[in-house]
Amino acid sequence: MQATTSLASPATVARTSPRGLSRQIRRRHTRVGLLFVSPWIIGFLAFFVYPFFATLYYSFTNFNGVQTAHVIGFTNYVNLFHDPLFKTSLFNTFYYTACELPLSTVVALGLALLLNMEVKGRAIYRTVFYIPSIVPTVASCLIFVWIFNPASGIVNDLLTGAHLPGPNWFFSIAWSKPSFILLGLWGLGQPMVIYLAGLQSVPREMYEVVNLDGAKPWQRLRYVTLPMLTPVILFNVILQLVLCIAYFTQAQVIENADVGGPGTSTWFYVQYLYQEAFEYLKFGYSSAMAFCLFVISALIMVALFKSSSRWVYYASEQQ
Amino acid sequence: MNHRGGEAADAVERSNGARSHRRKWLKQRRLAKVTTAIATAAVVSAVGMGSAAVANASVVNLTWWTMWSGSTLQLLNQMTTQFNKTHPGIHVTETNIPSVATTSTAKLLASIAAGDPPDIFTEWWPEIGEFAADGDLDSLNPYLTGPYSGFEKWEYPVAVQGGTYKKQLYAVPMGLNSWALYYNKSILTKAGVTTAPKTLAQLDSDSAKEWVVTNGKIQQIGLYPDTAGNGFLFYASFFNALNCFNSAGKYAYESCPGAKTLMNWIASFDKYPYAQLQAMQTAAGTVAGGQTDLFTAGKQGFFLSGPWEGAQNIPQSGGKGLQGAFGVIPFPGTVGAPSTIGQGNFNIVPKGSAHPQQAFEFMSWLAGYQNEAFMGTIDPKGGWVPGGPSVTKQPAYQAWLKANPWLDPFLPQMTSPYSQAPALTPTQAEVFNAMNTATANVLQKIQTPAQALQYIDQQGNS
């Protein structure tokens, strides 16, 4: 029998050589990987990318939700910057954010520190402090309005009993925003749990080392706990920032017929956007509002991330 | 041939083969039977469906989205059942769409955009102008022919006005609202007043006597022009301040004499603590699922409301103390005669509705057109003023009026020349909200009356 040999083509050599084989395998892996990720990609394109660019387009039109949109240039943006309610709603939203964000961080962290202590019944305390965050939002709003009702609520009854003046809470221009801030502080269970998880990841050896140096509790907190928690703080701050900027449900439920609250003191940005879109059918105008909100939020996030390099300590980067 | 075992083996083999063949045959037979049964069932059901389809092809199915629940929904169900019974060619299916803020509007818009709207939609009137201006509604004018050519004449004038935009009829009232002044007899008596007020000055004076404040806390109020959201708009017809437009067709409340008088009158109440009053109203509103207001709770001496207050709210909120202890008078406004604002809940036909003609037939039937006898029995249960006066002449409606003399002021106002419906405009919803905000701002001294009227004009003309 005569052995025959034939010269393989370059393509065949490329395919079958060790390098070629690994490229083939890589391509196959890539295809399979993309296939597995495709549901997310499709969802991302359909529910984020498309609506984002659609909103941007509609912000330059007079779209009313049903009829064909006609491009009107920058008219919506010009009207927006001359709209007093736009400024009012932006002010209210950032007032709320500026107060709620630091307060919620301090309160949630404080609660987590307390609930991390080795005390009897710790599990019960943790449960009790977490429960408010799982009460449905609408229910908690109605409870708060009832409790804080200046005419018949228990809070003002207690204040009156203690010979203290009871404010008009949600019905007062001066106290309406603080009332919403209090409502927000009531439901801090989730950031508290995240801080608790972060506290568990602080290495015990670090506490042992500083204890050997005679550190006091405040010094332990300042030089060990807080620095080690900064990544978790950053995470929670970002989450809370998003919730504050997009504040809507609570205001809508509590204000009910008195939209905007007393003297538009609790007229939040997303509420105004919603009213323009779904009550006044001005989808073009509300799209302009939405895009403005996106730009403002993006700027804040960029600033936050840029600042994080100065105050966030990642232990893994040090190793 | 199996050469092992000889004939016996052959016989066994033949027998096995035969059994196997028989099993196969039985299996095939079973399969055939099952297949035949399925095919037969499919054919029969297809024929049946086809027959049903043929039979139903002559029945027009209408979908009706409404916003009501509770006892009102039950009345709607009675009405739908009666209509379906008496109109075999049309079948109406009602779907409840909760009207939470703008939820129902958003659903309606989405359905129109998707090309699948309901045939009829019940809408709170402020948005009708917007919908009509944006082309989201079907005009009903093409159907005002034949038996319906007299429909607009049959309706109350304010009903036609409230449903017409640019000379096209777009909406038919489900039930109209008529507003008058309720008064609590015992509060009035305790305030030292023997007769109900007949003029605005008397009303102001009597109302002031009814306010009771103890240790800085309000215990009882007289009249307050922003209870339960009833602000500028609902008093406007009594001051000839409802439709104020300039020659260019723009809103002009700032220069409207009636509007100035009304807003200054509202400002006279700024001496009362707004925040406390809102809190009291909220507290009252959380009782009995929101059916209670300060008047039904027996804490308010004068209250502007409609027939539903006495027909539903007072009985249902447990305000038994008010049964028979309240009266109703026309609001003593400045126009010198009874009047009311003509508004209410209207039915509309969204653009793209599959059966607009049949939808209009149903809507006009609901209003009471050519259906007076039945609606004469239903409207009293809802405390409704019907779309046309002939319904109120029906024996059942007359019996209701006779049994409840407090209803006397409501109907004559519907045909008063001073009664008006708010003009349908593309910014009607903005104007409505602006009026509420303006009222609240004046009562809280945030804006002067002039500034408040300017604000309304700005919002309406935006």
Distance between the termini of chain A: 66 Å
The helix content of chain A, as a percent range, equals over 70%
The level-1 CATH class of the largest domain in chain B: Alpha Beta
CATH class of the largest domain in chain A: Mainly Alpha
Radius of gyration of chain A: 28 Å
Helix-strand category of chain A:
mainly alpha
* Residue-averaged pLDDT of chain A: 89
Structure characterization notes:
The complex is a heterodimer of chains A (319) and B (462). Chain A is mostly helical and 319 residues long. Chain A folds into 2 domains: 49 residues, no CATH class; 243 residues, MetI-like (MetI-like fold), CATH 1.10.3720. Chain A has 15 helices and no strands. Chain A is flat. The N terminus of chain A is likely disordered. Chain B has 462 residues and is α+β, with helices and mostly antiparallel strands. Chain B folds into 3 domains: 39 residues; 190 residues, D-Maltodextrin-Binding Protein, domain 2; 200 residues, D-Maltodextrin-Binding Protein, domain 2 (3-Layer(aba) Sandwich), CATH 3.40.190. Chain B is built from 19 helices and 12 strands.
Notable traits:
heterodimer, A: 319 residues, mainly alpha, 2 domains, 71% helix, disordered N terminus, B: 462 residues, alpha+beta, D-Maltodextrin-Binding Protein, domain 2, five-stranded mixed sheet, three-stranded antiparallel sheet, 19 helices, 12 strands, elongated
SSE map:
The complex is a heterodimer of chains A (319) and B (462).
Chain A: H1 10-16, H2 18-58, H3 75-81, H4 84-115, H5 122-130, H6 137-147, H7 154-161, H8 176-186, H9 189-200, H10 204-212, H11 217-245, H12 249-255, H13 269-279, H14 283-311, H15 315-318
Helix pairs in contact in A: 1-2, 2-14, 4-8, 4-9, 4-11, 4-13, 6-12, 9-11, 11-14, 13-14
Chain B: H1 6-56, E1 60-66, H2 70-86, E2 90-96, H3 103-113, E3 120-124, H4 128-133, H5 151-154, H6 157-162, E4 164-165, E5 168-169, E6 171-177, E7 180-184, H7 185-190, H8 200-210, E8 212-214, E9 217-220, H9 232-235, H10 257-267, H11 274-285, E10 302-305, H12 307-316, E11 326-329, E12 343-348, H13 356-367, H14 372-382, H15 389-392, H16 395-403, H17 410-414, H18 428-443, H19 449-460
Helix pairs in contact in B: 2-14, 10-19, 14-16, 18-19
